[in-house]
Design goal:
The chain is an alpha/beta fold. The protein has 3 domains: 74 residues, Urease, subunit C, domain 1 (Roll); 296 residues, Metal-dependent hydrolases (TIM Barrel, Alpha-Beta Barrel), CATH 3.20.20.140; 56 residues, Dna Ligase, domain 1, CATH 3.30.1490. Helix content is 29%, strand content 22%. Strands 1, 2, 3, 4, 5, 17, 18, 19 and 20 form a 9-stranded mixed β-sheet that branches. The protein binds zinc ion (ZN) and copper (II) ion. The site of zinc ion has 4 residues, from loops.
């Protein structure tokens, strides 16, 4: 019998996203789904791809992004598609485009999403969802709503704990977001506009999570000297709400905290025995966020990624900026704010230990609107595959792929993604395991990665041999318990 499909991928080395050993075979796609896998010699299709010498993996899931606006402003999603990413988790670190008030651009770190371009125009999650449905991007997105965003929406003075009335309003906004399809709430208590929120406020605002099967995802209150306290707070919130938690971009920041991942991973592992705890990590020893004076002493080098009053300093080291301004570094920070920066403040051994930890997902934390962004925006996934898996042999190829596919799909509740399996959505990335590598670096941060051959989203080719196809098959992946979600 001859079967006819939309697309056939022939002769691939199949790494299916479950950590199972690789196999050789063909993959047939029909109506946006994987229709068959195996030796499909007699099958026919409208189009065929010869994947000899290439790995076929589920499309990568970027577990931590700030792509809320990029989905609209660059619907080709080039920084992500070019790495093989087919789904992004947005709305992290407490900040989301959805539910932000119109004046959010004045409040760092919300200005990481938009420092004045009029993008804060989605008063509800439903409004955001409608616009994305009307203007789909090349890849899929699953969205969190940010607690810092909710604070900005309901509070005048962000320097204190929310009142009962304010908490009630934030809780209603969170409920609306979850009911409209958000998959969870993110917090960013490390940042000024949410730092005054006590644990009780976070629990009270996040109450609706349990009703919607949502996640509590957090850029924790502290990632340096008090990192273990912050992990404890995160786990306590998860227990109080009885929901899964995700520790974002886990790191031990600052020279004084180097080496402490031994302790933090043991703590996380212990917590995992009694509750659901996830974590993600980016493969670099430098972090990046808004420019903050309190990070200077903790860093060996600081690079400016953008500056509103001084755009000409983007890409320069802070010590050079200080020299040019004829002031010390602390004073330079004050003069060029609002701004963003890269901080060399992590230890390579910690980064490797965290990446290699069984439960660690890969998340870029890329900042797509920075003038000279941290290279993680363009390089994270090929860097894990090329540098950490192939060259440093930190883990097998099957494990590397699992960390970017099956694992995040399970954690974030993306039921039919993250695996190459019959019936699953046809998100597929073909890459050359021998040559895949990141090219973006701190000098040239937007260079295309090498070795990503073809990227398929919901059965449509969106990227091939370094070129975008122009197709926009991306979907908003809704919380399955929201109203109007499929199934
Ligand atoms: Zn963060
Ligand atoms: Cu982030």
């Amino acid at each position: 019998m001859t079967l006819s499909y939309d697309l056939l991928i022939r002769n691939a080395t199949i790494v299916d996203g479950t950590r199972a050993p690789r196999t050789r075979g063909d993959i047939a796609i029909k109506d946006g789904r994987i229709a068959a896998i195996g030796a499909l010699d007699s099958a026919r299709a409208d189009a065929e791809i010869d994947a000899s010498g290439l790995v076929a993996a589920p499309g990568f899931i970027d577990a931590h992004t700030h792509d809320d606006r990029l989905l609209f402003s660059d619907p080709a999603m080039t920084p992500k598609v070019s790495q093989g990413v087919t789904t992004v988790i947005t709305g992290n670190c407490g900040i989301s485009l959805a539910c932000s008030p119109a004046n959010a651009a004045q409040t760092p770190p919300l200005d990481l999403l938009d420092s004045g371009g009029g993008w804060f125009r989605f008063p509800s999650f439903a409004a955001y969802r409608e616009e994305l449905a009307a203007k789909p991007a090349a890849i899929n997105a699953a969205c969190l709503v940010g607690h810092t965003t909710l604070r900005c929406a309901v509070m005048e003075n962000l320097g204190r704990a929310a009142t009962h009335a304010e908490i009630a309003r934030m809780r209603e906004l969170a409920r609306e977001a979850l009911a409209s399809g958000a998959i969870g709430v993110s917090t960013g208590t490390a940042y000024a506009p949410a730092a005054a929120a006590p644990t009780e406020e976070l629990i009270a605002v996040c109450r609706p999570l349990a009703d919607y099967g949502g996640l509590y995802v957090t850029h924790m209150r502290n990632e340096d000297e008090h990192v273990t306290d912050a992990i404890e707070e995160t786990c306590a919130i998860g227990r109080a709400l009885n929901v899964p938690v995700v520790i974002s971009h886990h790191k031990c920041a600052g020279i004084r905290s180097h080496g402490r991942s031994i302790e933090t991973l043991a703590q996380i592992e212990k917590a995992m025995r009694s509750q659901s705890v996830g974590l993600d990590c980016y493969p670099y020893v430098a972090s990046s966020t808004v420019l903050r004076a309190d990070r200077l002493a903790q860093s060996t080098r600081v690079i400016i990624t953008w500056s509103k009053p001084h755009p000409e300093f983007s890409g320069l080291d802070l010590d050079e900026v200080a020299k040019r301004l004829g002031v010390n570094e602390a004073e330079a920070v004050e003069r060029i704010k609002p701004a963003g920066a890269i901080y060399f403040m992590l230890d390579e051994k910690d980064v490797q230990r965290i990446l290699a930890f069984d439960e660690t997902m890969i998340g870029s934390d890329g900042l797509p609107h920075d003038a000279k962004p941290h290279p993680r925006l363009w390089g994270t996934f090929p860097r894990v595959l090329g540098r950490y898996c192939r060259d440093l042999k930190l883990f097998s190829l099957e494990t590397a792929v699992y960390k970017m596919t099956g694992l995040p799909a399970t954690r974030f509740g993306l039921a039919d993604r993250g695996r190459l399996q019959t019936g699953y959505a046809a998100d597929v990335t073909l890459f050359d395991a021998d040559s895949v590598i990141d090219v973006a670096d701190f000098k040239n941060p937007t260079a295309l990665a090498k070795g990503i051959a073809t990227v398929i989203v919901n059965g449509e080719i969106v990227w091939r041999e370094g070129l975008a196809s122009g197709k926009r098959p991306g979907k908003l992946l809704l919380n399955p318990r929201s109203t109007g979600a499929p199934r």
